TrEMBL record:
Keywords: Aminotransferase, Pyridoxal phosphate, Transferase
Modified residues (N6-(pyridoxal phosphate)lysine): K203
Family: Belongs to the class-V pyridoxal-phosphate-dependent aminotransferase family.
Pfam families per UniProt: Aminotran_5
Natural source organism: Tectimicrobiota bacterium
InterPro entries: Aminotrans_V_dom, PyrdxlP-dep_Trfase, PyrdxlP-dep_Trfase_major, PyrdxlP-dep_Trfase_small, SP_NH2Trfase/AEP_transaminase
Domain of life: Bacteria
SUPFAM superfamilies the UniProt entry points to: PLP-dependent transferases
Protein name: Alanine--glyoxylate aminotransferase family protein
GO molecular function: alanine-glyoxylate transaminase activity; L-serine-pyruvate transaminase activity
Keyword Transcription: no
Domain Aminotransferase class V, residue spans: 51-340
GO biological process, any: glycine biosynthetic process, by transamination of glyoxylate
Length: 397
């Protein structure tokens, strides 16, 4: 049969509960927004939506930065845009490397000709601010310091507030990746003195992948405009892209209309709930998960003060076939969780409770599926105990 004469099956992907490192499930209102009629990129109605999306994003990032918008492309596009626009040949850039995404940033700095100063920590520990201070004092001038706020490969939430101040003192720009933290934990761009901050839409925002919310301080914009050479990636040149996301509305590339509709709706959902209430819900759902997992005999990989509520890394007990268990969760229970990466491959699972999935109901669904699988393997000691423990932890939190 030729491709032309063959009939392809009906398109109907399974409905899964997405509790991995992203994407997360979409809110029904976001799904509806995706089927709205498409508009031209200079249509007055669409331009109003753009302005509103920028305003909603400023509230989420807690910033007054004028240039706050969704860049076309996934989280990695935000990462590359920020670094490609900031780094010129020979610029010294310090990058915190304590997981896969820090490694990715370091590689991008190298590719754009930057002089990389790596500040390392173990996969599961935060970067020590004292080490950053040391680098700023002894290896300067440093053009920028770049950190991952929520390291999705390890489950670490990096404390940031102190570091922004240090960067200001030493005239370094502060770059922060908030792909897995934005919408799930506090991100305070202005009060933490963050100059360039990017995120992703498919993690705690419950919107489809494909946009990278981005915000730049005036200091960052000045640094970009003061470059000696043009940005090496035309598609990500923020000096050019800014001209579309400001009064001039100069065409640079066609923005993904439907994704912007979806993001605007996702942001409305988030701000209707309220940021503090949302962060508190993430915190309580994570505590419920921790307690339930402990009742099943699992241990967590990250020490208490540095846990990222939206992504939990849990150690695989010895003798448990981690891949088979994950496969059973997916195939028999329609639940996706993530495997470990890099040095944590085979050693941990990564469980995401992102946005609307950060609820007690979701935690109980996962725990009860895990209980069934463990019982079938003869590994469950007290049936139901994890559910009761999780519920109590949620109510007590
Ligand atoms: C997911 C993620 C990214 C990359 O986002 P993509 O949308 O997959 O390109 C970057 N940084 C962190 C911390 C992430 O979790």
């Amino acid at each position: 049969m030729t491709t032309e004469s063959k009939s392809f099956g009906e398109f109907s992907p399974p409905v899964r509960l997405l509790l991995g490192p992203g994407p997360s499930n979409l809110h029904p209102r976001v799904v509806r927004a995706l089927s709205a009629p498409i508009l031209g990129y200079l249509d007055p109605y669409f331009l109003t939506l753009l302005d509103e999306t920028m305003e909603l994003l400023r509230a989420l990032f807690r910033t007054a930065n004028r240039l706050t918008f969704p860049l076309s492309g996934p989280g990695t596009a935000g990462m590359e845009a920020v670094l490609a626009n900031m780094v010129e040949a020979g610029d010294r850039v310090a990058v915190g490397v304590n997981g896969l995404f820090g490694q990715r940033m370091a590689e991008i700095v190298r590719r754009h000709g930057g002089e990389l100063i790596e500040i390392a920590a173990a996969w599961g520990s935060p970067i020590d601010p004292a080490q950053i201070e040391e680098v700023l004092k002894t290896r300067g001038p440093i053009k920028a310091v770049a950190l991952i706020h929520g390291e999705t490969s390890t489950g670490v939430l990096q404390p940031l507030s102190e570091i922004g101040r240090l960067c200001r003192e030493h005239q370094a720009l502060f770059i922060v990746d908030t792909v897995t933290s934005l919408g799930g934990a506090a991100v305070e761009v202005d009060s933490w003195h963050i100059d360039l901050c990017y995120s992703g839409t498919q993690k705690c925002l419950n919107a489809p992948p494909g946009l990278s919310p981005l915000t730049l301080s005036d200091r960052a914009l000045e640094a970009i405009k003061a470059r000696k050479s043009p940005c090496g990636v035309w598609y990500l040149d923020l000096k050019l892209i800014e001209q579309y996301w400001s009064r001039g509305r100069v065409y640079h590339h066609t923005p993904p209309t439907l994704l912007i509709y979806a993001l605007r709706e996702a942001l409305r959902v988030i701000l209707e709930e309220g940021l503090e209430a949302r962060f508190d819900r993430h915190r309580r759902a994570a505590l419920a998960l921790y307690s339930g997992l402990a009742a099943l005999g699992f241990e967590l990989h990250v020490p208490t003060p540095y846990r990222l509520p939206s992504l939990t890394t849990v150690k695989i007990p010895s003798g448990l076939d981690e891949a088979r268990t994950r496969q059973s969760l997916l195939e028999d229970h329609n639940i996706e969780i993530g495997a470990g990466l890099g040095p944590l491959r085979g050693k941990v699972w990564r469980i995401g409770l992102m946005g609307q999935n950060a609820t007690l109901a979701t935690v109980l669904t996962l725990l009860s599926a895990l209980e069934q699988i463990l019982r079938a393997q003869g590994r469950l000691e007290k049936p139901g105990a994890s559910l009761q423990t999780a519920e109590k932890a949620f109510l007590d939190a």
